[in-house]
Write a structure and sequence with these properties.
By secondary structure, this protein is mainly β. It is built from 1 helix and 39 strands. Among the domains are: 40 residues, no CATH class; 30 residues, no CATH class; 56 residues, no CATH class; 123 residues, Sandwich (Jelly Rolls); 126 residues, Jelly Rolls (Sandwich), CATH 2.60.120; 119 residues, Jelly Rolls. 1% of the residues lie in helices and 22% in strands. Strands 13-15-20-17-18 form a 5-stranded mixed sheet, with no helix packed on it. A hairpin with an 8-residue loop joins β35 and β36. The radius of gyration is 63 Å and the shape is flat.
């Protein structure tokens, strides 16, 4: 035999048994479970129970403490605490007429799991506890099969709820751990929780998502070329001079600071565009030794002598010879350089034109336009100013580079002076500038004015008119005749009538306004006055302008207002409304009747009481009455209870009265009733989520005042929503929607679901598993939480199955493939202690359970499928395989486990039996079976094409272990196998999450060694 590769510890133990005696060797199994009762003593007499220390039948060795012969006659007599007339020590009365109690050494059927009498202990490992319950995980005592037991239900402390000591890698984040992904912990996978239960971090030698390098302990912020402690590669700017860098000052690197290390990690240098120490300039790539005015490539300023003609230079020959065509000052040789050259009269090397040598290198002479200092007075100068004989300004001319000495007067101009020295001012002009002269005004009258600056007689506005006279003319050119007088003589003018109004009349010969009867009154107008002197104001109009009169407002009420400027009765906004009164009308025209009062007389309006809306009426005194919420709903009384349908129901408790009060929540709220009739045991779910007030939900049995069987306050989520979730037997029930207190009422929303309970929800309806077992599917959606076990938690819904063994058998039970997190209990009775309990299979691989019992003793057993946590329910898959007691891996009752992630198993079929047949071969030999749990959808194949296989093998894969299971793949001979075509290969098959069974079989009479590989 050869050992297997990747075999689990459990499988190794099974193989050890196989190695000891081959495939046919049977393992020891479990205890037979049979009671070892004391046989009758055989003395031929009636066995009378005595108190001889053991409550055993009388063995003729009496100790004087025998119970009187009347004990056991079924009649309770004086001195007897009990007498049930039987010899059963497992009921309520022991054989000695002593009441059964925990600690008496007898297991009380249906009430006690164990009783070792004085050996009961709450501290001894594996002992029966002092409450006569079997030792179990969670009782605070570390038993043989437990690694720890802290007696609590906290699954995040140092001891797990399955009594396995908390360790890094168990998938639970404990104190001191940053993470724990269980089997997914890795020291090589990016971003994984590390095997030390630390989160992935920079420095763990794994390149994670946010990292570009990670050399672990070799990370360094000082070593050249190392991965930095921030898990970024060495680079320019990290403060370390790496290979290929001339410098690196980290954050001080700069492309603008003089003498700094550049951001390219190159030292400062000429040509880097920064003026460093010792440099006059630096224009980077623009530095040039050929371009004018550029910074030179030596980082020196452009200068005379650098062989480049810059701005301000006429030439630059780059030498120090000052006698060639380019002077050392970078000026071209020529006039002004102090040397008399060809074509020059002189060259005094200056720019002066008043000395003997002009700046043009020509000798100074009269007529050259320049005054030779000390030699000439003028030279081609224009005439200069002088004073004539009559004091006017004249001109003196330049002749032969000297002034002539004669002053010529100017021509006569209009200036009020004698310019030409002829003896008269402004000769030849109409008048003397500034003198007073006569002129004609703009209105044609004779006026006076001043002779203009142009020696012209003034005209227009410059000619001042004479004073006005009463003559009917406009003398002073002011635009009106006789202005300054009361009126224009003979003109029609306004005047004051005898009644003081403005009339009209003729201006008198003395330019006076007419008065008295000479002033004619006007026609009557709307102005509040007596215009026509007839003795009444505004006579002939509707009212006297400005007087207060009655009028009709914009809203039709009687108001007041001022008579208009047109002597009309005011209307619209001009008519002032009266004050508002309580009359149901809009008196003051503000847009609402009876405004300023509490309400409009006789009207109704919406009102609210907490979350309820009603109607309030306004009285004759404009006072708002109480809020009327309407009639109570029909469902307010039990007699009006409505049938509760599945789905959503809506209603209101606003006008409902307080007919009932809950056991939970606060009493006093209005309530309504719904009736539910269950034809069979069902799960009732009712939620008030979406209601407008704080609700309480409760359920009463048979009548509205019946026994309250369920109650919830605020367990349904936000907003005070409540939720009932109860499994109820067949019958009539009343669901009450109540307010959580007298102030809680409003609109409610009921979401109801009624799910029939499965027949096997209770022990009495347990489904019978036939001989050999099978696969069973169903749902716990309508089931109750009736049972809990020693593992998992068992707070979810559960169903019951039962089977009977005629003798010892191997039993394999699994719920892998169920839609919820399940646990499974194996018991002899529904209420008995767990014989075995299964929780998650290799978490997190599966939330289904697997139980495997070797040589389970004959008898009747119960299998309970439960939800691990509260609310865990749904579709389940239960597979039970029952086969004759045999060696591990030989039958479906005790298949080998294919541990997830294992690549190969090597065993043999030499001493095994032949139980199963694949469809790809009619005749097969001895076989092995493995169960394979697929945690997530995967494509899996298997092959025996391996040097370790030495016989004609056969492989097939099933969805269930027994022959009733669907065969997913089968192969006899693999034509592609180089070792032998008599080996087999199951092609890669797409498998959904669940449990599968792999059979390693032999063709014909073939058996031997095999190595089966997964791929």
């Amino acid at each position: 035999m050869r050992s297997s590769t990747g075999v689990s510890a459990r499988l190794a133990a099974l193989l050890l048994a196989a190695w000891s005696g081959g495939c046919g060797l049977q393992s020891s199994g479990i205890a037979d479970g049979a009671g070892d009762g004391v046989p009758p003593d055989g003395d031929g007499g009636g066995d009378v129970v005595v108190e001889d220390g053991g409550d055993r039948p009388d063995d003729a060795r009496d100790d004087g403490w025998e119970v009187p012969p009347t004990c056991g006659n079924g009649t309770l007599e004086p001195g007897e605490p009990c007498d049930d007339g039987n010899a059963d020590d497992t009921d309520d009365c022991l054989v000695g007429c002593i009441p059964a109690s925990c600690g008496d050494g007898f297991v009380r059927s249906g009430l006690e799991e164990c009783d070792d009498g004085g050996a009961n202990s709450d501290t001894a490992p594996d002992a029966c506890r002092t409450d006569c319950r079997s030792a179990r995980c969670g009782d605070g005592v570390v038993d043989t099969v437990e690694g720890c037991d802290d007696g609590n239900t906290v699954d995040t402390d140092e001891c797990r709820n399955d009594c396995i000591a908390a360790t890094c890698g168990d998938g639970v984040v404990d104190t001191g751990e940053e993470c724990d992904d269980g089997g997914a912990n890795s020291d090589t996978a990016p971003d994984a929780c590390r095997t030390t239960c630390r989160r992935a971090f920079c420095g763990d030698a794994v390149i994670d998502a946010a990292e570009t390098c990670d050399d672990g302990g070799a990370n360094s912020d000082t070593a050249p070329d190392a991965c930095r402690t921030t898990c970024v590669p060495a680079g320019c700017g990290d403060g370390v001079v790496d290979t290929g860098e001339g410098c690196d000052d980290g954050g001080s690197n700069s492309d603008t600071t003089p003498d700094a290390c550049r951001t390219s990690c190159r030292p400062a240098s000429c040509g880097d565009s920064v003026v460093d120490g010792g440099e006059q300039c630096d224009m980077g790539f623009a530095n040039s030794d050929t371009l004018p005015d550029a910074c030179r490539t030596t980082c020196r300023h452009a200068a005379c002598g650098d062989s480049v003609v810059d701005t301000g230079e006429a030439c630059d020959d780059g030498n120090t010879v000052d006698t060639d065509a380019c002077r050392n000052t970078c000026a071209l040789a020529g006039c002004g350089d102090g040397v008399v050259g060809p074509g020059e009269d002189c060259d005094d090397a200056n720019a002066s034109n008043t000395d003997a040598c002009l700046s043009s290198c020509v000798a100074a002479s009269c007529g050259d336009g320049f005054v030779h200092a000390g030699v000439e007075d003028c030279d081609r100068d224009p005439p200069r100013a002088c004073t004539s004989s009559c004091g006017t300004g004249g001109l003196e001319s330049c002749a032969a580079c000297a002034w002539s000495g004669a002053c010529t007067p100017p021509s006569e101009i209009c200036n009020g002076a004698d310019d030409v020295c002829a003896g008269g001012a402004d000769d030849g002009f109409p008048c003397v500038q500034g003198a007073a002269v006569g002129c004609t005004t703009t209105c044609g009258t004779s006026g006076t004015g001043t002779c203009t600056a142009a020696c012209a007689v003034p005209a227009g506005a410059s000619c001042t008119p004479p004073a006005e006279a009463c003559n009917g003319l406009d003398d002073d050119c002011t635009g009106g005749a006789d202005n300054g007088f009361a009126c224009v003589r003979g003109a029609t003018v306004g005047c004051t009538t005898t009644c003081g109004t403005s009339g009209t009349g003729t201006c008198t010969a003395a330019c006076a306004v007419p008065a008295g009867a000479s002033c004619t009154p006007p026609a009557e107008t709307c102005n509040g006055l007596d215009d026509d002197c007839t003795g009444g104001a505004d006579n002939g109009f509707a009212c006297i302008r400005g007087a207060t009169v009655a009028c009709t407002t914009t809203c039709g009420s009687a108001g007041t207002g001022a008579c208009t400027a047109a002597c009309a009765i005011p209307a619209g906004a001009s008519c002032t409304p009266p004050a508002e009164t309580c009359n149901g009308l809009d008196d003051d025209c503000t847009g609402g009747a009876d405004n300023g009062f509490a309400c409009v007389q006789g009207s109704s309006q919406s009102c609210t009481v907490n979350a309820c809306t009603g109607t309030a009426l306004c009285s004759a005194a404009c006072v708002l009455g109480a809020c009327n919420l309407g009639a109570a709903p029909a469902t307010d009384l039990c007699a009006g209870a409505a049938a509760l349908p599945a789905g959503t129901s809506r209603g209101t408790t606003c006008a409902a009265t307080d007919q009932a009060d809950p056991a939970c929540g606060t009493a006093g709220g209005g309530d309504v009733f719904y009736q539910v009739v269950l034809a069979a045991r069902s799960r009732l779910e009712v939620s008030s989520a979406g209601s407008s007030f704080d609700t309480v939900l409760y359920v009463r049995q048979t009548t509205c005042a019946g026994t309250e069987v369920a109650c919830d306050n605020d367990g349904g989520g936000a907003g005070g929503a409540s939720r009932i979730d109860a499994v109820l037997p067949a019958g009539t029930y009343f669901v009450v929607v109540d307010g959580n207190g007298p102030d809680e009422a409003g609109s409610y929303v009921l979401n109801a679901t009624i799910t029939p309970s499965p027949a096997n929800d209770l022990c009495a309806g347990a489904t019978t598993i036939p001989a050999g077992g099978g696969v069973f599917t169903g749902t716990t959606a309508g089931a109750a939480n009736d049972f809990t076990g020693g593992c998992g938690g068992g707070a979810g819904a559960d169903v019951v199955y039962t089977f009977t063994l005629g003798g010892g058998a191997d039993v394999f039970i699994t719920t892998v493939g169920s839609s919820f997190d399940s646990v499974v209990y194996l018991r002899s009775t529904c209420t008995g202690a767990d014989i075995d309990c299964g929780d998650d299979y290799r978490p997190p691989a599966s939330t289904g359970a697997i139980l495997q019992r070797d040589n389970l003793a004959g008898g009747t057993y119960v299998v309970i499928v439960d939800g691990k946590t509260a609310g865990a329910r749904g579709n389940y898959r239960l597979e039970v395989n029952i086969t004759s007691n045999d060696n591990p891996g030989d039958r479906c009752g005790q298949p080998f486990e294919w541990v997830p992630g294992t690549a190969q198993y090597c065993l043999d079929t030499n001493a095994c039996s032949d139980e199963y047949v694949g469809t790809c071969a009619a005749d097969t030999d001895r076989d092995r079976v493995y169960y394979v749990v697929v945690p997530a959808a995967a494509t899996v194949g298997f092959t025996t094409c391996d040097p370790g296989t030495n016989y004609d093998s056969l492989l097939y894969l099933r969805s269930a272990c027994l022959d009733s299971g669907t065969e997913l793949a089968c192969n006899d001979d693999d034509s592609t196998c180089a070792a032998s075509t008599q080996r087999s290969r199951l092609p890669a098959t797409a498998l959904t999450p669940g449990i599968y069974y792999l059979f390693v079989d032999g063709f014909g009479n073939s058996n031997g060694d095999y190595c089966v590989n997964a791929f």
